[in-house]
Structure formats: structure tokens, C-alpha cells
Amino acid sequence: MYTGFFPPGSVLWDLTQTNKFDAIRETIHQTSTFRAIPGLDLEAFTRAVIKREQEQSTGFGHGIAIAHGRTSQVATSEIALGVSREGIDFQAFDGMPVHLLFIVASHPDRQIDYLRILSCLATLARNELFRQELLACLCQEEVERKVCSAFQGALLRSHC
């Protein structure tokens, strides 16, 4: 159920877009996470994530955004990460630019899994050391290893 998060290709190391909607599009289309899902309509999923973002910013604060969309075209929840060196204006409550953009896809009937994933990502986002370590990584593979390990650890600790 929760295995396999952040496999190779799930991180976009050099996110170039600075507009939040374009950054969402770039992360969805450039990571292998969503392209690898059989039958997933990338454009429809992108529209769902952007629609959710238009309702209320998912800029969590501390340089993190957790954009998400629900679709019946995924069997299990999937996550990708876009890393922006420049920063993206997500209208976060703290006014800080976003450097770590998580995108979550989940099935509408998997509400508990969805909420648990969002909770774990929010827990990690509040950890300053975690954020600093990800931004200090020197390559995509290092980011994938660190985020995968931290996320799996958060799930196992069951406090999210």
C-alpha cells in the first residue's frame, strides 16, 4: 500500500518555472511518477491539481507546497517532488517562496491513505533539518534517497 514512494525519476531536480501553475505542470509532466501510471490522463490530472490550487493555496509555509489532486485513474497514491532553487510564489501563509513542491495523486475512495500521506508530508515539511538537507543535495538521486527514507520513516513511526 505505501511501498515504492519516490522511486528513481520521481524528483524533478531543476524545476525552472516560477509561476505556481506552470511549476505544477512541469513537475507532473517531467517526472516519471505520473507518466508511468497506465491510463492516467496527464492533462486531466494537471487540471485537477490546478483547480484545487485555485480554490486555496497549498503553500504550506517554510518553502514547501503540497499540491494534490484526486483521480479515479490511479489505484494507489503517488507522489512527485519538484525542487526549485529560485523559488516559486505560492501565496503561502508565511509569504516565503516555495523551493520544494510535492505533487500527490490519489484515488477518491482512498481517503485514509490520502490524509495519511498529506500528514506525513506536512510533518516532514515542518522539519527544518530535512528541508535544509534536501536543498543541499548535489544530485537528483541524492534527493530521491533522502526524501524516500524520510517519508518511509515517517510512515513507519505512525505519528502522521
UniProtKB/TrEMBL annotation:
<feature type="domain" description="PTS EIIA type-2">
    <location>
        <begin position="4"/>
        <end position="150"/>
    </location>
</feature>
<dbReference type="InterPro" id="IPR002178">
    <property type="entry name" value="PTS_EIIA_type-2_dom"/>
</dbReference>
<protein>
    <submittedName>
        <fullName>PTS fructose transporter subunit IIA</fullName>
    </submittedName>
</protein>
<dbReference type="Pfam" id="PF00359">
    <property type="entry name" value="PTS_EIIA_2"/>
</dbReference>
<dbReference type="InterPro" id="IPR016152">
    <property type="entry name" value="PTrfase/Anion_transptr"/>
</dbReference>
<dbReference type="InterPro" id="IPR051541">
    <property type="entry name" value="PTS_SugarTrans_NitroReg"/>
</dbReference>
